From TrEMBL, chain A:
Superkingdom: Bacteria
InterPro entries given in the database record: SMAD_FHA_dom_sf
Name under which the protein is recorded: FHA domain-containing protein
From TrEMBL, chain B:
Protein kinase domain ranges (all copies): 18-301
The protein's name in its UniProt record: Protein kinase
Organism taxonomic ancestry: Bacteria, Bacillati, Actinomycetota, Actinomycetes, Kitasatosporales
Record flagged with keyword Kinase: yes
Keywords per UniProt: Kinase, Transferase
Length: 248, 523
């Protein structure tokens, strides 16, 4: 029932093992240098003992800045520079982004702390907002990169045969590069992982496994997306340029 | 109703024998229009509700899930026929190449309702009939769950109110058949009625897992809304209420129900709105408690067990309404708001013609010229049809009523403690009085009008039939009748008709022959 996911900054040793912290509405997570006082311990001398607090509020979250002097900046990585500044001492500042990066200034380093709000709702088709309308369980933002990645994954099956092979991560990155020059294997993979969270994909039996399971994750995403019409033929417009480079 | 209709159908448009009239509602997946029948038909009613679902070829590959939802709904309608579930008469496909937006649309022809619970609540918050309506909604749920299905989207807009004041559940797009303890439903839901465990739940490729307890939660929300005109969880918006549900389920907040709720309903709603699905009350227990709470004036019996949709297939609407009204006249029970309408439409004006139809009701299965009172034919025939045992037939029930009481609804035999047209002994009737098979809360008191006695008799016979040993000699129907008198164990132990009821058995056999239409008698 969580609505907010906090991804701690990478540490040198366990780059791969970045455990996510899930918060349900109303739950709080404090972060800072002091281990006993904080839910999230950030071992960096440049960070305050009690640096701040993240509180999940329904589908969004609020940030409190406990430091005396430092302003925190919360960026929207896909927002072309869009950001929110949270001044020192400011409590419960609402953050409107679906993905955010809190940048903690720490003695010359900038530590990125990612916060995802995958439960953001978007208007779907004809449905109203009155709570009495039967609504799909998925709510996707068609302007986000994850949607472009999903569309690229679904493209061969939407255009071709229902059993067309799925594009590889590299092929997806190539397909998206005209509209997203920075697309890379890593960024595409990040979006696939995020989609699995966003669409609440049931983890497979061997979910702890990473590498080779990726194919299963893509397969599940595509079948879910096509089954519930999250991506339709007319959505393929987000993939500017002609198809063809995807076909193996 | 300002939103555009998902499927726009012009007034006067013809589909099959139906002529489209005014729009009734539009949902997330299709649009519903009133319709009237244009041709002659003995099977279809005069009016119906047509649900148009946009499955046309103009929208290739876009509506995978919609097709699946429709198949689900049709499947349920085909397989489940219960008095608290809306009936489907037929399905049609629009064949009209000149109108590409309609061509290929699937049309479900459904029972026409008077309105929905959401419309009633909008017009009359906290309706006086609330508890009685809830009891019937709960019955509908129990029937669905009993048949192994989960509704998945119970809310006021999906509860329909019929002309006779009874309630039917509708809209089975989300319904799913149970596989073990849970079912898979498409990942759609209505936020205010979604239990906390399904908020942001994990979703597999088959959809989300749902249990009958999800309907129980939705019923709790709905009951609170009907009785207090407010949602049980606080918040001005659905999003706020959803968060309140999540917070409550995590145990950080308590459930604070409206102080307006009477104690018994407070307990019922609390039992529905538990934090986890494991703690939630089961559908059966819920029904018992809801019926007890709906209590006063509700007595043991609810609205009569008539099955309009099935009747409609066989006779005209007017005949049914009148026949129903006649059969029910003895029941001094009605939901105040709606009963008047029902009586009005079944008024005496159409009496003559209706009696003719009632007298011929079920003529193919039950002779019309052997003195079976027309007023009971409908009850007898429909009661027999409610039972899936082949030996429990209209003829058997009629023969038994003849022998038991000579069709005397007022029979009272205090010496033997037997009353009414079916000679029920009160302490035995208690076990058969409720349609869902639950015993009555207390031993019922006579009089037992035919609308109660006959269906209860049918339920008992239907229970007896499979319990009699296969190898007993003689006519199964006679054996069933003697088991009604002496219990199935006695008949099994006696290896046939027990000696002390031989005379009774002979009379039953006589009337079985008497009432069977000529072409139906075994060679």
């Amino acid at each position: 029932m969580y609505s907010i996911i906090v991804v701690p900054p990478p540490t040198t040793e366990d780059e791969r093992d970045r455990s996510q912290i899930r918060l349900a509405p109303g739950e709080r997570l404090t972060f800072g240098r002091s281990a006993p006082d904080n839910g999230l311990h950030i071992a960096h001398d440049g960070v305050s003992r009690r640096a701040g607090e993240i509180t999940a509020q329904g589908a969004f979250w609020v940030l409190s800045n406990f430091s005396r002097a430092q302003t925190y900046v919360v960026e929207n990585p896909e927002g072309a520079g869009e950001h929110v500044k949270v001044a020192p001492g400011r409590l419960d500042a609402p953050i409107p982004f679906e993905f955010s990066r809190i940048v903690l200034p720490a003695a010359g380093d900038l530590l990125p702390l990612q916060v995802w709000a995958p439960r953001h709702d978007y208007l779907s088709g004809s449905g109203g907002l009155d709570g009495a309308t039967t609504a799909p369980a998925f709510s996707v933002d068609r302007t986000k990169r994850y949607f472009a990645v999903l569309a690229a994954l679904c493209e061969p099956r939407l255009r071709g045969t229902p059993h067309a092979p799925l594009p590889t991560v590299d092929q997806v990155a190539d397909r998206l590069r005209p509209t997203w020059p920075a697309a890379s294997r890593t960024s595409v993979q990040w979006n696939i992982d995020y989609l699995a969270v966003k669409l609440r994909l049931k983890p497979g039996p061997e979910s702890a496994d990473t590498g080779p399971r990726l194919n299963g994750k893509k397969e599940s995403l595509v079948s879910l997306a096509l089954r519930f019409d999250l991506v339709r033929e007319d959505d393929l417009g987000v993939l500017a340029g002609p198809p063809g480079r995807v076909t193996p | 109703m300002t939103e555009p209709y998902a499927v726009a159908v012009p007034k006067g448009y013809r589909v099959g024998v139906w002529e489209v009239r005014e729009p009734l509602a539009t949902g997330a997946f299709g649009s519903v229009y009133a319709a009237r029948r244009t041709g002659e038909s003995t099977e279809l009613p005069r009016t119906a509700a047509l649900k148009f679902l946009p499955t046309g070829t103009a929208t290739p590959r876009r509506l995978t899930h919609l097709r699946e939802l429709i198949e689900r709904e049709i499947e349920l309608y085909r397989r489940l026929k219960h008095p608290r579930l809306v009936r489907m008469y037929e399905t049609l496909t629009v064949d009209d190449p000149d109108r590409p937006e309609l061509d290929g649309a699937t049309v479900l022809v459904l029972e026409r309702a008077k309105g929905s619970l959401s419309a009633l609540l909008a017009a009359t918050p906290r309706p006086e009939a609330g508890p009685a309506l809830l009891a019937q909604i709960c019955e509908g749920l129990a029937q669905l769950h009993g048949a192994g299905w989960v509704h998945g989207d119970l809310k006021p807009a999906n509860v329909l109110l019929m002309d006779d004041g009874s309630v039917r559940l509708a809209d089975f797009n989300m319904a799913a058949e149970l596989e073990g303890t849970h079912a898979y439903t498409p990942a759609f839901s209505t936020p205010d009625y979604t239990p906390p465990e399904l908020l942001w739940t994990e979703i597999g490729e088959r959809g989300r897992r749902i249990r009958p307890s999800a309907d129980v939660w939705a019923f709790g929300v709905l009951a609170h809304l009907v009785l207090t005109d407010s949602f049980p969880l606080p918040g001005a918006t659905p999003a706020a209420r959803r968060d309140a549900a999540a917070t409550y389920a995590r145990g950080t907040d308590e459930l604070r129900l409206s102080p307006e709720l009477p104690d018994d309903w407070r307990r019922i709603i609390s039992a529905c709105l538990t934090r986890t699905h494991q703690d939630r009350v089961s559908g059966e227990t819920l029904l018992r408690r809801v019926e007890a709470a709906a209590g006063a004036g509700h007595r043991a019996f609810r609205l009569p067990r008539l099955r309009p949709a099935r009747h409609l297939r066989r006779t005209s609407l007017a005949a049914i309404t009148t026949a129903a009204a006649t059969a029910l006249a003895a029941l001094a029970y009605g939901i105040s708001v709606w009963a008047d309408g029902a009586r009005g439409s079944g008024g005496s004006g159409s009496g003559a013609s209706a009696n003719v139809s009632a007298a011929a009701y079920g003529a193919s299965e039950l002779r019309t010229d052997r003195g079976i009172p027309p007023a009971y034919r409908l009850l007898i025939v429909e009661t027999a049809h409610d039972c899936d045992q082949k030996d429990v037939t209209p003829v058997l029930i009629a023969a038994m009523l003849k022998v038991e009481s000579d069709f005397d609804p007022d029979l009272a035999d205090p010496a033997n403690d037997e009353y009414g047209i079916a000679r029920w002994t009160p302490r035995v009737l208690r076990w058969w009085m409720n349609e869902d098979g639950t015993p009555g809360e207390t031993v019922p008191q006579p009089p037992f009008p035919p609308a109660e006695s006959i269906p209860a008799m049918g339920r008992y016979l239907c229970w007896i039939a499979p319990r009699l040993h296969e190898d007993l000699p003689g006519d199964r129907r006679v054996l069933i009748a003697t088991a009604y008198r002496r219990s199935y164990r006695t008949v099994n132990a006696a290896g046939g008709v027990p000696p002390d009821v031989r005379a009774y058995a002979d009379r039953i056999a006589h009337y079985l022959k008497e009432y069977t239409p000529p072409d139906r008698n075994p060679p």
